[in-house]
Amino acid sequence: MARTYQYSVNVVPSYATNPNVSWSVVGANEDAMYTGQALIDQTGLLTPTAPGTIRVVASALDASGVNAYLNVVITTSPILVRDLEFVTEGDVNLTEIYLDPASI
């Protein structure tokens, strides 16, 4: 089974009357500039089907004509770790933590 990837967008303003978007992909069949192929459903769930470059498009469904674009490279090569980041929750500061002396 093919791996899938979930895309989403933030609608601005968040209180827009119609915050819904339509999803599409521009690939090799639609534009010679792009070489890859993928399918995307209307929830933003993308399934790559051929390696290369595609463009993921989110289009506002109101009358604004606003679109967001993201170029994506589909590769058959393993993708290696490029960086590691610590994740914090809320106001937790992981660079300074408290140890109660009574517990030592």
Overview of this protein structure:
By secondary structure, the chain is an all-beta fold. It has one domain (5-79). Helix content is 0%, strand content 34%. It has strands spanning 5-6, 21-26, 37-40, 45-50, 52-60, 67-74. The strands form 2 sheets. A 3-stranded antiparallel beta sheet has the order 1-4-3, with no helix packed on it. A 3-stranded antiparallel beta sheet has the order 2-5-6, with no helix packed on it. A hairpin with a 6-residue loop joins strand 5 (52-60) and strand 6 (67-74). It is flat. The N and C termini lie far apart (52 Å). The model has no long low-confidence stretch (mean pLDDT 90).
Helix share bin: under 10%
What does the overall shape look like?
Answer: flat
- Tell me, rounded to a whole number, the average pLDDT: 90
Reading the helices and strands in chain order gives: EEEEEE
Instruction: Indicate the low-confidence ranges by residue numbers.
Output: none
Strand order of the largest sheet: 1-4-3
Content-based structural category = mainly beta
Note the main sheet.
3 strands, antiparallel
> Number of folding domains?
1
**Terminal CA distance:** 52 Å
Q: Count the strands?
A: 6
Kindly estimate the percentage of residues that lie in beta strands according to DSSP: 25-35%
Radius of gyration (CA) equals 20 Å
Number of helices: 0
